């Protein structure tokens, strides 16, 4: 395969050059995100509302605020910061259902709020999943995992977003699949858990 110069005095193969292109594109994406964050901050500081900003961005007022807002925390007086990125939320979502399939409610419980743990008991969570396993077998893996706001607005990978979020994934089992959803509070603790069939109706979150 022919090589081409890199500008650093050594040739690279076409495959390596392709990776260089990916790295450059990633850097541009990160810079574009930073530029957008700064532009939104300037526009909001100059008096534009979240409704106006959301309209320009093609998202809801709440989605614009959650992505770009920096409210003051009444508990500390400091600026609120997102607890994690959406990548962390997606990983947590898959971990939750692996714990359920493994029957490890003790670990799962540590990821819940106290109020949620009092409702989502081992009998309820593992009993519900046992009925699913009886129909489709154990969990083989997750696919299509994503994150959205409570109003259903999808959130891109790598975003930092304030407030409550919902992680969702397709639970691929031995003989079928289910849809799994995890509601998380602003501190990324579990406040809701759903396992529903693909043809589900309206959901609480």
Architecture overview:
The chain has 205 residues and is an alpha+beta fold. The chain has 2 domains: 3-68, no CATH class; 86-196, Nuclear Transport Factor 2, Chain: A. 45% of the residues lie in helices and 21% in strands. The chain contains 7 helices and 7 strands; from the N terminus they run E-E-H-H-H-H-H-H-H-E-E-E-E-E. Strands 4-3-5-6-7 form a 5-stranded antiparallel beta sheet. Strands 1-2 form a two-stranded antiparallel ribbon. A hairpin with a 2-residue loop joins strand 5 (165-173) and strand 6. Helix 2 crosses helix 3. The longest helix has 32 residues, at 14-45. It starts with a strand and ends in a 9-residue tail after the last strand. The model is unreliable at 1-10 (pLDDT under 50).
Offer a few descriptive terms.
205 residues; alpha+beta; Nuclear Transport Factor 2, Chain: A; five-stranded antiparallel β-sheet; two-stranded antiparallel sheet; 7 helices; 45% helix; 21% strand; globular
């Amino acid at each position: 395969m022919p090589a081409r110069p890199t500008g650093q005095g050594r040739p690279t193969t076409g495959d390596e050059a392709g990776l260089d292109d990916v790295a450059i594109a990633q850097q541009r994406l990160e810079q574009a995100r930073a530029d957008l964050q700064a532009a939104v901050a300037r526009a909001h500081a100059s008096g534009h509302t979240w409704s106006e900003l959301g309209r320009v961005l093609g998202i809801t007022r709440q989605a614009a605020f959650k992505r770009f807002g920096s409210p003051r925390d009444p508990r500390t007086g400091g600026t609120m910061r997102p607890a994690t990125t959406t990548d962390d939320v997606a990983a947590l979502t898959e971990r939750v259902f692996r714990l359920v399939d493994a029957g490890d409610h003790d670990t799962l419980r540590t990821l819940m709020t106290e109020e949620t743990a009092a409702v989502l008991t081992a009998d309820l969570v593992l009993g519900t999943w046992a009925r699913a396993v009886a129909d489709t077998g154990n969990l083989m893996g997750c696919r299509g995992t994503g994150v959205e706001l409570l109003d259903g607005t999808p959130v891109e990978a790598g975003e930092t977003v304030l407030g409550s979020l919902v992680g969702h994934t397709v639970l691929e089992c031995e003989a079928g699949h289910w849809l799994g959803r995890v509601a998380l509070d602003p501190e990324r603790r579990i406040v809701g858990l759903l396992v529903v069939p693909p043809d589900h109706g309206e959901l609480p979150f």
